[in-house]
Each structure stands twice: as C-alpha cells, then as structure tokens.
Design a protein that fits this description.
Helices cover 47% and strands 17% of the residues. The chain is α/β, with parallel strands linked by helices. It folds into 2 domains: 182 residues, 3-Layer(aba) Sandwich (Rossmann fold), CATH 3.40.50; 159 residues, Glycogen Phosphorylase B (Rossmann fold), CATH 3.40.50.2000. The chain has a 7-stranded mixed sheet with strand order 1-3-2-4-5-6-7, with helices on both faces. It has a 6-stranded parallel sheet with strand order 10-9-8-11-12-13, with helices on both faces. α3 runs parallel beside α4, α8 packs across α13 and α11 packs across α14. The two termini are 28 Å apart. This is Glycosyltransferase family 4 protein.
Length: 365
C-alpha cells in the first residue's frame, strides 16, 4: 500500500485505487505524475494498488492485497474513494471496490482510462451491461478524459454525473540532446490497435524520397512480427527497437526525435502523445478517442484517419520535407500543453471535484 501517512495517523481524506505507479502503461504514468506533482500531499491521498505487471500469480496477489488494503482503509472512513479504471478485469475489480466504498458511506469517483471501453460494453452480456451502467450512475462523479468519451458515457448511462478532466503532463525543460533529422518516434504497446503496421508501411512508402528516415519503436508487444513485416517491405534497416522506454530515457528519446507518431485505431487520451507535445514535437496522430480534444489538424499537429497508410505517409512526408512547419507545429503543441494539460491545471480540476463532493462548493451527489 502506498500512502501519504502511516496507518496510525489521521484518516485519509481520499482513498485512491489503481495500478501500481511504478508499473508500465498510461494509467501508471498518470498516477505517478499525480503523486509526483503534489495531488497526494495536497488532498491527503492514501493510494492502494489493485493491479501490477507480471505473471498471473503476481496479478492475483496484487488483487488480493488491493482488496485487503481497501477494506483496511475504508475502516478509517475516508471521505472519498477515487478509482482509476479501464475495461475487462480492471473494471470488474474497481466496480466491486467502489460498491464496497458506497456501502461504507463514501462518495465515489470513477475515472475512466480505457481506450476500448465502448467495445467492452458492446461485447458484454446483458447482466454485465446493467452492472456497468449501475456503476457509472451510482458513482458520485465519473471522470472522462475527453468530450467524446463524456458524450459516449452520458449516452450509455444517462443518470451518470460525467465531467471532463484530461490527463496531465509536466512541461520538461529544454533538452541539450540534438534532434536527429528523419527520426520518427513511436511509443506505446506494439500491437495492431496502435497502428504500428500502417506506420511501418508508411515508412516503406517514404524510404526512397527520404533515405535518412528511420522509425524508433519504444514499447512491448508484437516486436518480432513488426520486424518480419519491415523485412518484407524492405525497411528492416530503418527500424530501431528501443524496447520498453523507462521514464528517465523517455525525455531523451523525445528530444532526439524529429516527429512523434501514434496512428492508433482506438484511444483514451494517450499519455505518450501529450508528453511528445510537451517536449515541443510535431505529432502525427489519428483522430480517435480523446485525441481531437488535444490536437487540431494543421494547428498543433497533423491528424489522419486510422488504418490509412498512404495518408500517414503523406503527413509524415510533409513534415520531413519542411523543417519550418515541423518546428511551428511543435511550438504550438507545447503551448497547448502549457495552457490546458499542464499538471498544475489538471490537479486543480481534480481538487475542485473533491471539494464539490465534500460540500465545499457547487453541487455534490
């Protein structure tokens, strides 16, 4: 259990549930930043991990520890319980823990991060769909990452009180690492949903015009399959496999990249994209999930339809040809983060939700 005070100290004001902050993936990054940037101390948060990376046994142990940790914290009567949830097992764990919290008299916050939550609902049976709707509508507040996700949740669960709060990202200082011309950076799970195969195909379309172009891939997943596809397309020598990029390495990789690309088929609000924008990088992304809430095509990035390798190649080629446009988009991207997604702004929005639920202003449920 991670917490801001010892068990013997005063009761936490907020019990927060989610994946282990030291783990991998977007939710772990979000939680780690909230802790690092002062939300836990500011709001008296006791954080209980309910999930961890590793084997099935590791995950079962984490779930069991999360349950006992939640029960122990509920006995100390927190005012609010805030759960970071996605789809499938993540939803099941958090929905049951939130039900326990409501039974203990706590206000609850359901914070949705899942990129495929709509598909999860569509594939669920009638009983699970009812439970999902009940969980959303019984929560005091549901936090969506974007206006599109908020609209979907309100349509599915009309009785839910949905607010939009994006993921936060810190603004990194200027880096001394030189930009490598032609280096395209991808960060994320290496799988079809992230558009990685279209990105490799786009690189193949660009290889003759841009002999210096290369694709650096940071992440885990279908690495061997991507290597084979790159070899088939004649660009195996243009692929750099970085493996999992840890936090301390990520800023160096972002600084080195000329372009950041994430042509996903489904997303929440991807942390890797926000971090690239904060680093002043021109981004080429697909207009899915919460991405259009952050990126305006031609203003602070370029947006393409998912699954279209030729359109992706055209967008990347435009930036590889025009350093001035690439730098302009990167500067606008950083300004967007500073104005709307910087950590202090987002933490203020979360604190306002907590204050409202504690009856310190506005309407609470």
């Amino acid at each position: 259990m991670n917490q801001t005070s010892s068990p013997a100290a005063h009761a936490p004001r907020v019990l927060m549930l989610g994946t282990a902050p030291a783990g991998r993936g977007g939710v772990a990054t979000v939680v780690s930043l909230l802790q690092q940037d002062g939300l836990f101390e500011r709001e008296g948060v006791c954080y209980v991990p309910t999930h961890t990376e590793g084997s099935r046994a590791d995950k079962l142990r984490a779930a069991a520890k999360g349950l006992f940790g939640t029960l122990a914290c509920l006995m100390r009567r927190p005012q609010l319980v805030h759960a970071h949830a996605a789809s499938n097992g993540s939803f099941v764990r958090k929905s049951l823990l939130l039900a326990l919290a409501r039974a203990a008299g706590c206000k609850t916050v359901f914070h949705l991060h899942g990129a495929c939550f709509d598909s999860f609902i569509d594939k669920s049976g009638p009983w699970m769909r009812r439970w999902i709707r009940h969980t959303l509508e019984a929560s005091s507040v549901v936090i969506a990452l974007s206006s599109r996700w908020a609209g979907f949740l309100r349509g599915f669960a009309p009785g839910a009180h949905v607010v939009v709060i994006p993921n936060s990202v810190p603004l990194p200082p200027a880096s001394g690492v030189a930009v490598q011309p032609g280096r395209i950076l991808f960060l994320g799970q290496v799988e079809p949903r992230k558009g990685i195969y279209e990105l490799v195909e786009a690189l193949a379309q660009l290889k003759d015009e841009f002999p210096h172009a290369e694709l650096a891939i940071g992440g885990q997943g279908e690495l061997e399959q991507v290597r084979r596809r790159a070899a088939e397309l004649g660009v195996a020598d243009r692929i750099v496999m970085l493996g999992w990029v840890k936090a301390e390495q990520k800023q160096e990789e972002l600084a080195r990249a000329a372009i950041f690309c994430l042509p996903s088929h489904a997303e929440g609000l991807p942390m890797a994209m926000l971090e690239a924008m904060a680093a002043g990088k021109a981004v080429v992304v697909s207009g899915v999930g919460g991405i259009p809430d952050a990126v305006m095509d031609g203003d602070n990035g370029l947006m393409i339809e998912p699954g279209d390798a030729s359109a992706l190649a055209a967008a990347l080629g435009k930036l590889l040809r025009d350093d001035g446009e690439r730098q302009r988009l990167g500067a606008r991207a950083r300004a967007t983060i500073e104005q709307r997604f910087e950590s202090g702004v987002v933490i203020g929005q979360i604190s306002a939700v907590y204050a409202q639920l504690r009856g310190e202003g506005g309407t609470a449920r």
